[in-house]
Amino acid sequence: MFDDEYYEDRLNLSEAQIRRHHQKERFRRRNAELLQQELELEDELLQENPELAQQIHALNAAEIQAQQAGFQHLFNADSSKKSGWRSLFPGL
pLDDT tens, 4-43? Predict the structure, then answer.
């Protein structure tokens, strides 16, 4: 039914698909591991620095309130005003 060339092409395609799938899975696992490490380091940093945790919470709350107020303030706001995060991290 299948000639040898067709069968070999299908086999190579299947091998390539398996390799791609395996590489994607390795990439996902590595990303998950790195994310877990990042979260653990962040947790450790925040536990060691409660003032930092409070400041981050306050900044996040302010950002949420600004978003809830809508985007209109972005168009009317003075361009010299910066968000809380941007005042701490000018590159944002």
Answer: 777 777 777 788 888 898 999 999 999 999 999 999 999 9
Euclidean distance between CA atoms 42 and 7, whole angstroms: 52
Tokens of 24: 């994607």
Q: Give the amino acid at 85.
A: W
**Residue 13 C-alpha from the chain's centroid:** 32
**pLDDT score for 18:** 87
DSSP secondary structure string for all residues of 17-55:
HHHHHHHHHHHHHHHHHHHHHHHHHHHHHHHH-HHHHHH
Which amino acid is present at 37? Answer: Q
Cα within 13 Å of Cα(39), Cβ side: 6
What is the C-alpha separation between 5 and 28, in angstroms, rounded?
35
Half-sphere exposure of 78 (CA within 13 A, CB side): 2
